[in-house]
Amino acid sequence: MKHIQIAPSILSADFSAMGQAVETLQQAGADLIHCDVMDGSFVPNITFGHHMVRDIRKHTSLPLDVHLMIERPERHVENFIKAGADIVTVHHEACGASLKDVLRLIRSLGAKCGAVINPDTPLSAVYGVLEEVDMLLVMSVFPGYGGQKFIPHVLEKTREARAIFDRCNPDADVEIDGGVNLQNCGGIVAAGVNILVAGNTVFCSDDMEGTIAALKRGK
Ligand code: DX5
Ligand code: ZN
Predict the structure, then answer these.
(1) What is the pTM of this model?
(2) Which residue has a Cα nearest atom 9 of ligand 1?
(3) Which ligand is located closest to the Cα atom of residue 140?
(4) Which residue in the list 36, 39, 65, 134 is annotated as catalytic?
(5) Which residues form the active site (predicted)?
(6) Is the CB of 11 under 6 A from ligand 1?
(7) Active site (annotated) includes residue 177
(8) If you measure from the C-alpha of residue 67 to the centroid of ligand 2, how many angstroms do you get, rounded to a whole number?
(9) CATH number for the domain including 108?
(10) Domain total for the chain?
């Protein structure tokens, strides 16, 4: 059983004080920093580019888990990795048939690679890459905004993904993203997930350290 890790999403942080935000997250026990990159085209919202990754890199030793919600991510992966990204995840819905090539590009540039699927995308869409990813990110909301409601049926995909990984790629992580909270985290962990992204639940808490610890315990 892989140990449970918490990856707070800085989408919910104060963008005018992002360096302080990641320092606070590290002190509060976060395991990774989840960086939601949005281009206003693949998803309706716009957030930040690789310069944000470059600047927060100076403020934390935690792995930077960069979630690219952008069209044609292959154009940008090198910039994010040079800026300090440790993990780069790209959407099946953005890459299509080139997903395997983009994942291999990320690995060739020295970062860990992950495939992402939206709530309405079947796991079968990424069967062809599960043997060679470091992570599968299963969206439990439709990407674009924090604070949305968790979509429970996606847990069928996390269970199946964990079972496939255990057979063919046991070191790979299953990450979930969107609507994670103290009420659903136990069921999420029981469904094969070992990395939980949480934005609002962490940043709206008046006890960040306690909330991260409770998410890690699964309650
Ligand atoms: C949504 C982002 C998620 C989201 C998580 O597109 O990918 O990372 O910010 O935030 P919460 O936990 O607030 O749903
Ligand atoms: Zn995300």
Answers:
(1) 0.98
(2) 146
(3) 1
(4) 36
(5) 36 (proton acceptor), 177 (proton donor)
(6) yes
(7) yes
(8) 5
(9) 3.20.20.70
(10) 1
Q: Are 186 and 207 in contact (CB under 8 A)?
A: no
Strands (E) located in the chain:
5-8, 33-38, 64-69, 87-91, 112-117, 135-139, 173-177, 195-198
Instruction: Give the angle 165-168-170 at the CA atoms, nearest 5°.
Output: 50
- Pairing between β-strand 5-8 and β-strand 195-198 as defined by DSSP bridges: parallel
Structural domain of 99: 5-217
Give dist(CA 30, CA 118) in Å, integer.
Answer: 24
Tokens of 65: 């888990």
Please state the residue numbers annotated as binding site for substrate.
9, 67, 144-147, 177-179
173 is catalytic: no
Geometric angle at alpha carbon 86, from 82 and 88, rounded to 5°: 90
The residue nearest atom 6 of ligand 1, judged by CA position, is 143
